[in-house]
Structures are given as C-alpha cells and as structure tokens.
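Reply to dn_fold:

You asked what the input looked like. This is it:
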Amino acid sequence: MNAEIKYRLPAEWESHKSTIICWPHQKEDWPGKFAPIPWVYVEIVKNIVPGELVRIIIQSQEERKNAQKFLERAHVDLNNVEFIITKTDRGWMRDSSPAFVKNGDKVNAVKFVFNGWAKYSNWKKDKNIPATLSKVLDLELLEAEYQNKKVVLEGGAIDSNGCGTLLTTEECLLDDKVQTRNPGFTKKDYEEVFNKYFGVTNVIWLGKGIAGDDTHGHVDDLCRFVNKDTVVLCREKNSAGDNYKPLEENFERLQDTRLEDGSKLNVVELPMPKPINFEDLRLPASYANFYISNCAVLVPTFNDPNDRVALNILKEFFVDREVIGIHAVDLVWGLGTIHCLSHEEPL
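and this is what came back:
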C-alpha cells in the first residue's frame, strides 16, 4: 500500500451508490421467530430503493425467486434491486463487508478479517464477502495489515464523521480476555491502523457498550455521528438498570471531547427503550442502530413510548430525509437490527 495515498472513510450520510444487505436465511439467528424476518427486510428495502440501488446477497437462484416474491407482494420497485448470488454463513453485512474508503473520487474496498466477533464458529464463508463484493463492484481490494499481521475489525465497532474523527469502544477493541480481536493491540496500534486506512487523525474512545450486545461493545448500538460535529448518545433514565452506569460513564467521557479540528463535540441524548428479554436472553435493543440511506433514515422501533421520542430527535438532524421507524421487536431476537444488517457503498 502506497504510504503517500490518502484514504478517507466517508460519513454514512454522504451520497451512496448502493446499500448492501444479505437476504435472511440463517434460521438459527432467529430461533422460533424466523417467519416475520423476511417481511422486516422487505420494509427496509422498500424504504431505501426510492433513493439508491439495493444490492441483495442471496444464496441461490431458488432463494432469489423466493425473495423476489416477497418484494413483489409489497410492491417494491425491483428496477432498483440487484441480486448477488454467493454463499454466506450469516447476514450481518455491517461486520463482514469490506470498509469502503475514498481516495479523491475513487472508491476502494478495505478487507479486515472477520472472525465471527471472536465468538462464533460459523464465519468461514463470510470471510470471502469482501473479495466477492470488490469483484462485483469492480473495486480495488486492499488488505488491512499492521506490523505484518492481518487486522480484525467489524464495521459496527466504528463510526465516522467523514472528516477525520472516529468513534469506538475500549470494551470491543481492547478487552484481552473476552472476544479479543487483535491480541496485544494498544490504542496507539489501532489509531495507526485507522490513520493508514481511514485517514483518521482523531479517535474518541468510549468505555462499554450496551447490555445484551453479543459483539462485546459495538459502538453502533451506543453512539453515532449525525453530522460532522454532533453525536447522539444513548442514556438510560432508570438508575437501577444494567445500562445506567456504563452509559453515564460514556456521557461523562464526551463532555470535554474535541473533534479533529479542535472544536467541541456536540452531544445529544438518545433515549433507550425498556429492556427487551426473550427466553433467558437480554436483547440489544437500541435506537442508535439506525441506518442513513440517501432518502431515508431507518430507525429500529420496539413498541415503546420512547420510539416517538427517538424518531423526533433524529428528525431534527435529517431534515432532508424521511425518518422512518422499522418494527424491530422480532429482528432484535437475532441480536442485531438495521445498521447491523446493512452496509453503504459510497458514490
């Protein structure tokens, strides 16, 4: 990789060429609750296609026909849908897709190692997704390395303002006992990786993620940029709740945080829904797992009074896009929602 080339990780609100998703097929991700999941995906696709192409990864021609029937029944415009047939283990495109960076007007794909969040064993097919997508999208694929080692990183672990500042968590990237991504890596090591491949000069380190998050601290359930100098940060009002203390600590960390240009970061509170438990599991329900497409911002909702509060907060920052709630009570049983299952391809 040429050290003189300057790469930039675009913000999610910048113009997209497409959104990439994978049609749900892994029934074990939603045990006993799979039947409604394709319909949730239909709603997601239906609200993205007015503004951009949706590329849907599909397992076979037979599954493609099945997916088309779902979409046609909901009157989705298939002229803005493209199917990519390839085998995958899971469908969480945020984490198994390459990162898309820009070098001037040119887009490149950066491959990080995906290893099932250092937790699951079924990821051998998913590790091929970056190569498949870079070939279909006709993009140069760069392999992320640091000190002659391949770097493990998921897209849900980071969030960018597109100007040189990146959000992440210590729990996800620095824990040396639980779901360790890159053994021995320090903050400085990660910051050098982020600078080399993303053009990031300023990293904001938060502490822990939310309760129920089986990724062990992904930032996209916790804190997100909504413009170049503002983040929305989840806060819990119930002082007896599992999320109260870690979210308050993160709020304190951000009080004097600076951006890449030295200006102060604006922090806006985003509520949390009431805890959602299914069987014996706490589920990672969070409004921060929204996805910003060209024409709409899709926000997970949970039949909760705070649904409307969260939608109204986000509407203030996306006046040029429709802010749409997507029912995610069933979807979150898969331990992820809208941002987790999607990935933007920048224009």
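The radius of gyration is 19 Å.
Hope that clears it up.
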